[in-house]
Amino acid sequence: MYANASITLLVAWLSLLLGASQALASKELCQQWFYAKKYVKAAECFASLVERTSGTPEASKDVVGDLVLNSALSWRKAAAQDKRLAQAAYFREKASLYLRRYLKKGYYDSPTKKRYVQVLLQDTQRKIGYAPLVVTTSEPTADISITGYQFVASGKGSWRQRVRPGRYVVVIKAGRGIVLSRTIALQPFQPAALHIKLHRLSKRPDVRQTVQAPPPKPTKPELPLGVRAASWTTVGVGLVGAALGGVFVGLSQQTHEDRNTLYQTIINKDANDRTVGESQKLQALEGQAQQQWTAGWVMVGVGGAAAVSGLLLYLFFPRRSPSVPVRFTPGDSRNTFLLVE
C-alpha cells in the first residue's frame, strides 16, 4: 500500500517537473526569437505558452503574468519593426489585448508595475490610430461587405464602425451581381466615407394573379362545413325524437287495451263483487294511456318539425363557390440598378 502511494507521488512529481522543464524550454525558445528580432514569432510563442500554462499547477501567477507581458511587448516591437500601416496597427491591437489582460487579471506585484503597464496600454492604443469608416447606399436592401487585414464585416444598406487604419475593400451587391467594388486607404485618425447612389432602372410592380388549375369538370358550389353539420345534426335529432314519439303512441294503445280488458272484467262481475281497487286501477290506466298518447304525438310533431327544418336548411342554405388560390408576386428588382457615384 505504501509502495503504491510512493509510486503515485513520484509520478506526479515527475510530471510537474517535466511540465516545468517544457515550459522553461519553450520560454527560452521565445526569448531566442525575441533577441533575434523575430518579434512576431516571439509574440506568438509567448501567447501560445500563456494558453498552455494558464491554469496548470506548476504555473504561478507571476510566471503567467510575465508571459502575458512578454507577449504584449513582443507585439509592440513587431509593430515598430513593420512599416506596413495595416500590419503595424493590427500588431498594436494585439499588444493592447494582452496589456488589458495583464491588468484585468492583476498580474502586477506593485502599484509601480501597474502604472507602467497602464502607460504602455495608453501609448499602444493611441498609436493604433483608429478612425471611423462609413459606407452608405441609397438602397436599403443592398448588401455591404468590408474586408481588410485580419478584418471582415458586413451590413445592409449602410455600415459604420471605428476600425484600424489600412486598406479596405468595400463590395456592394444589389440584386444578382456585384454593383460596386472599391478600395479605401484609411489613414490614422482620418475618417473616411463612401456613399453609393443606386438608381432603379425598372421594377415590375407588385401584382396579384389568380392561379387556376385546369378543371376537368365544373366544380359545384359547396355548403359551409358548419351549416352542413348543423343541418344533418338537426335532421338526426328530429328523427330520433319522432321515433320515440311513435314508441310512446304504441305504449298508449297497449295501455288502452289493458284498460278495456279490465273494464270488461269489472262489468261482468256482480255489483257486490266489484272492489274499489279495481275502479282505481281502471282510472289510473285511463290517465296513463291519455298521457302516453299526448306525449307521443307531441314528440312525433316536434321531431318531425326538427327533421324537416334540418332538411330545408341543407337544401336551401346559400352555397359558396370553391375558393380560388391567390398568389402574391412581388416586384422583381434584381439586376435593375444603375450605379451613380
Could you please describe the fold and organization of this structure?
- The chain is α+β, with helices and mostly antiparallel strands and 341 residues long.
- It has 3 domains: 18-128, Alpha Horseshoe (Serine Threonine Protein Phosphatase 5, Tetratricopeptide repeat), CATH 1.25.40; 131-200, Sandwich (Immunoglobulin-like); 225-316.
- It is built from 7 helices and 10 strands.
- Strand 2 (143-148) and strand 3 (151-156) form a beta hairpin.
- Helix 1 (2-35) runs antiparallel to helix 2.
- The protein is elongated.
- It starts with a helix and ends with a strand.
What is shown here, in short?
The protein is α+β, with helices and mostly antiparallel strands. The chain contains seven helices and ten strands.
| CATH class (first level) name of the largest domain | Mainly Alpha
Return the average pLDDT rounded to an integer: 79
Main sheet?
4 strands, mixed
What low-confidence regions span 5 or more consecutive residues with pLDDT below 50?
1-22, 324-341
Specify Rg, calculated over alpha carbons. 49 Å
Structural class: alpha+beta
Helix count? 7
Distance between the termini: 84 Å
- Spatial order of strands in the largest sheet: 4-1-7-10
How much helicity do the residues have? 55-70%
Beta-sheet strand percentage?
15-25%
Query: What's the domain count?
Result: 3
Q: Which fold does the CATH topology of the largest domain refer to?
A: Serine Threonine Protein Phosphatase 5, Tetratricopeptide repeat
Order of helices and strands: HHHHHEEEEEEEEHHEE
CATH 2nd-level architecture of the largest domain:
Alpha Horseshoe
- Number of β-strand runs: 10
Task: Estimate the global geometry from the Cα principal axes.
Answer: elongated
